[in-house]
Every structure is written in structure tokens, then in C-alpha cells.
Batch of 2 targets.
Target 1
Amino acid sequence: MSTQKGNTKRCRAQKYQNRSSFKNNLNDTSHRTKFINNIQVAKVCERCKEIIEWKIKYKKYKPLTQPKKCVKCEQRTVRHAYHTMCIDCGNKLKVCTKCGEGKEIIEGTTDPKEQIKLDVEMQDLLKSLSERKRRTFMRHMNKQVKENDPELQDNRAKLIDKLNMLKVADDDLDDFSDFDDLSD
Ligand SMILES: [Zn+2]
Ligand SMILES: [Zn+2]
């Protein structure tokens, strides 16, 4: 972007505008691409958000296959690729969970319902459950959405864990009345 020296605000409109924005899913409608395109980058500073979103857009994004070690608490609690710190530590230290700097942090989408709706992985898991368990799970999820949990991004990972648990237990256990206690 062209700016005047010492002037960080763009002072004129972009000269050449692309006719349509770049689409990274034109020839690729795979589950993985859909999942990655739906990732909400949050709990990082503006610059790190742009870096990660750039990776998503141009298919350079590699999701984590398992949680990574947090540079602060040294637990395997980092669930988002390219972040170096877990959300808990980021919140505590009020820093970006990628670069670790105390800049203004992007909190992510303000519509958690939309965020959950978009989660392809979760939807696929839901489909694999029996009708009754699916309803139990939806109740549980709606409760969390209603409470507008600020840690929803992190809770999503927890919800997916629970879904996986339900799926595994689907054949063995018939009663999930204790499932409502799993919201801790
Ligand atoms: Zn941590
Ligand atoms: Zn940052």
C-alpha cells in the first residue's frame, strides 16, 4: 500500500481494483479446505491476525494435528496453529497469543452462534451420533451459546472432544443423563 512518509493512513483509493476477490476454493471443495476457511482467527494482535488470515487465504495454513506446547505455562494447551501461547495465558498476560506482544488483541467474532454453525468438523461428528444424543448435545451447546462464553473458541475444542467421547461411547452406553455435567 502506498503511503506518505509518516502517514500511516491511506489517503486515496486503491488505483487498480481487482474485479473479483481471490477465491481459494474454486477447484477445491474438500472438507479440509472448508474447515480451514471457516477458522476464526482470534486472541491475537491485528498484525498476527493478518498473517494467519493470509495463510488461510492462500492455502499456506497447516492446522495442528495435536495441541502444541504453550511457551508460557509449558502445557500442551495451544490448539490453534501458529499461536505460541494458550488462550488462558494470553488472557492472563493480556498479550497476543502468537507474537506475545501486549498490543490490542482481536477478540474474534461477536456472533458465537454463527461461529458454531460454521464448524464443519463438529457438524460431521454430530451426524454420526444417534438422534437422542444429538439432541442432548444441541441443548448443551445452545446453553453455552446463550451464556455467550468469551472462551467459546476454546470451548469449541472442548465440545469437539465431548462429541468424540459421545461417539466412542455410542455403542456401549445407553444413558447420557450425566452429560449435562460435562460443561466445566
Ligand atoms: Zn499457557
Ligand atoms: Zn501478535
Target 2
Amino acid sequence: MSIRHYVLLATDGSISLPKDEVLCTTNREDVYIFGFTGGLLEVDGVKIKGNEYLDYTDKDNWDTILKKKGEATIPSPIIWGEVGDHIYITLINIGMERRDDLKDFHTVHMHGAHVATQLDGFPESSFGVPMWEKTDTAPPKATYFFHPEDPGTLMYHCHVEASEHVQMGMYGALVIYPSMESLAKNGITKCNKCGHWRLNGEEQYDIPKTATNRNFAYNNIHSYFDKEYVMLLSDIDSEWHKSVSIKNNPDPFNAINFKPDFWLINGRAFPDTLRPHPLSVGSDPNLTQINYESYVHVKTNEKFLLRMINMGYQVVPWHIHGWHFMVVGKDSHLSPFLVFGKECKHLNHQLTEMGFTNTIGSGETYDLIITADDKRSLYRKYIVKGQDGFDSFCKQLSEIDPAAIFDIPEEPVNCANPQLIDLINYIQICNQPYGDPNNQFFPQFYPMHNHDDYKVTNNGKYPGGQLTMIQIDAPDKPM
Ligand SMILES: [Cu+2]
């Protein structure tokens, strides 16, 4: 059990969204937002390197805290902990930079967390945190407390005038991992001496020794994953944002006219979703445990978890190419199929909830696990050598106009340093040294996207919006 103390600073800011489909485009729109900045201050009394300035009890930090005015981001910092932790979130309302006339209250509503009314962040039944105006005295603040009883994927957002403050961007991911204790209560233990994971005393050789309790989505052996990704979905009506940015606007936006024109994953639209996430910073394991990266990069045979969160106002049919996902949980509850399959060593996929499109309403979360199955036994022969009288696919590709074959970014794209942009196309993959079954086939790439395909656009240009890529490299072991 740990005591984790987060400090969130409510303020405004802007995000820069691509207005076309071009990788690293400079054709962009600045959208005015509200949001939270800040993050994790300390764990068990030990301050996080780089975040010491968040210690509001030290007067010397007040200047730095106030300088964060105008630096809100979408999404807000990830808040995470384990079952049984004491999670404290201190909210300080540092006010708006552009809309300095606005003195709105803000709150933190931990969406999906069963907390007491007083801590629920719904201002109409509790309170709001007023703006820090007398900055020569300590800021008004409130510290929310959450004692997570169950693992899962949740979210948090401001609940003051929620129609506007949520649309403006005041939201982030909230993730709870199982603890070693909660796993043990469900028969899952790790042998101290040998390092093997066990279910009811029986060794589970599929789960690597390096795994920790933070490689499980739930207190269930089938919720093991190698890598995890938060996919926080939201939508932006830039006219609404423009309207809020204007002081004393004589014609304020009416929420019923909502008509989004940008669709985001973790605060970004494709092709920005292929770039390293700007909020992934710091070297402290408490900061790097989980992040907002949206370019999925795994090896064949690995399992990856998608923590789907919908903070937008529209329903999202989230479609994944390549494989079918298993729903391991919804709204921080283990899938009932896995409850029944708890003691089974191997899950029968006929008896779990599988799919290729997951419909996610606003305020819902889903935990999806995908196994990057090896497709070589089915497809490699045709692609590399040809079969059934058909030429190899590589040969066919070599005969068509190379310009018709797209270049795909390998690894997240660093636009700040164009020399580092590594693009690959399938001709190159085909040309890799012959004879090695690990080559001439990898990497594989699959998209995943909102299947309301007009939302895979920026400013009407395709592809953009809610789209990102999954890159799958060769497995560690040859075929
Ligand atoms: Cu607010």
C-alpha cells in the first residue's frame, strides 16, 4: 500500500491540431482549451524528481505554480495507483491566462470511483474550488481522497458546468492496477525464490518472471499483458472553443449546437498520433509506469492491453485491424466470462467476449487485450514464395509502380528531427535477406480507428482524427 499525492492545477491553454493529413504538417489550428496541469508530487512522502515545485505548502514554489497559468494540456496528467493505495489529489485553481475575467470554480470528479459524496466533485452536491486570487497568501485548495477497492480503467474530469468544462478539455485517465495482495486473494501469487507466477499453486509458464502486479488489468490470470496503452478518446467543436475564448462574448455558444470537427486520441489527431507524446517525460518509474503514447509497438506473440476511455460526447465504434480483441473488463469490472473462466488454464475463445469493433459510449471504459498472433504459418509462404499457381506477393509488388506503395513510419515519428524519421514500405520488407523466416515479413502494421470514418479526418481531410497504428515486429524466437 502506498500513499500517492497528486497536485492538479486548473487553468487554460491551447492545443495545436493538424488541419490536414500530412505527417509533421505545419498547417495547424490552435484551439483554446481549459484543463489541468501538474501531476504526481510524492509517493510515501518521497518527492518525485522534477515535480517538487508542486509542493504548495512551500511559499517559494508559489511563483512556479502560478507560472503554469495558461499551460493546461489535453489530456490532463494520468493518475494511477494500486488497489488499497491511498490516492490524494489536491486541486488548486490558478485561474485563466487568456480569459482572466473568468473566475469559474473547478472540481475533480473521479468518474467511476465509488467515493463519498463530499469527494465526488459534483459541485451541486458538494463544493467547487475557487480561484487563487490573493496570491500573497496560500491558495484555496481541496484534497480529494480515493481508496481504490478494485482494479480497472477509469477517468477523471471537472464537473463544474460540465457541458462546457469537459468539452474544453478538463479530463484525464485514472488507472488502478491490482496489488500483490489483491492478486493473492484471487489465487495469483509469485514464487519469491523461483520467480514463477502461480495460479492456485500451479506454475504459469506463459507469464514471464519479469512480470509484476502491474502486468495484470484485473485480479485474474487471463488479464495478463506485456504492454499497455491508454486510448483516451474525445471530440472537439472548434467553434465552441473559439466562442469560449472571447471575453464578454455577446453571443455565447449554445451547447445544443455541438458539432465536432476534430476527433482525438490522447489529445491528438492522426498523424500526430504517430509521434511521441509530449506528456511522456521524466525518469522516475512512478512517472514512466504508464503514459499517453498512442503508437502501439509490440512484438509478435506479445499481449497488449488497450485501456479504452471515451470522454467525448459522441459514441465511438472503435475498430481494430489485424486481430480480434478479448474484452477483459468494462467500467472497472472483470468480464463475467473471465469470472467463469477463472480456474481454466486455457481460455476457450468461444466462451469469452471477442470482437473486432468495440462501441464505446461517452463515460464508458473498456479493457481490451489483443494477442499479436503469429500470422506467418498462414501467409508468409504466399507473400514470399507464392502458392497455388500464384506468384509471390513480393514479386507482384515489385512489378507495380513503387509510388503506389505507401511509406509507413517505423517507430514513433520525431518531427523535431526530420533526419530521424524512419519510413519503410512493403518493397523494402520484401527485399530483406531471403531465407531467414524472421525477415521478409516484418514489421507488420495495422491501423485502429473510429469506424464512423468521417471522423478519421482533420478539417475534412482524410486520413486524420481518431486513427493510429500498431507496429508488430518479429518475435524473439524464430518460427
Ligand atoms: Cu472546471
